[in-house]
Amino acid sequence: MAGSLFYHFGRKVAPGVRKARWLWGSMTATDSELVQLEHDVGVDLACQARQQIQLDADPDVAEAVTGVGARLAERVANKHRSFRFEAFAAKAPNAFALPGGFVFVSRPIVLLCEGNRDELAFVLGHEMGHIISGHAIERIVTHSAVSVASRAAPVSGPLAGWLRRVGVQFLETAYSRDHELEADRLGVRLSAAAGYDPEASMRLLGRLAEMKDASPANDPGEYFSTHPTFDLRIRSIRQFLPRR
Fold it and tell me: Is 86 a catalytic residue?
């Protein structure tokens, strides 16, 4: 099923020599082939996203994001997957994940972690969880010109053009509650596997909850407000950690 969908994506989306790769993306495609197909979709989307945001020029922020991200990526079980992490300038905390392993986080999110790399690992791991679980590609498929229900139909236009129309703001909107909680659990697992403190996730979420309760002016922003409540996320992680 996934291979058939990727086939139609690829015929319209992947430019140049990549277009040929999609032709063998079928029901018989191997896991590594499907991962590569998803990566090619992400390459095109990431190029369009970079045209709509301003990458952060601070080398310390970039080093924190790429350093923590690389350490997490080393612990991903599926070695066919690769990840790229980039920080961008913004007024509010934001982050989004693109199919194929592209993770973007805003400078304010890095600052909210107060230099604590255990907390940053949870944030990056959460976004990686959306990619690993297929949430990122599923959201693109569901909301773009190609839907799961009409996968047999040809794509009406390139996904990069679709993203240019809807804007990266779409990518910053929330997933379903179940998807967000699943990404939290994967973020915690990746953090622990990479040697970071998984309980830092609860400390970060607890601190943000206290900030919000203390004053409306301290609201950590739309990125967090569109997720499940801090209390629910903390409870879910607390229940998951002993089982892990």
Answer: no
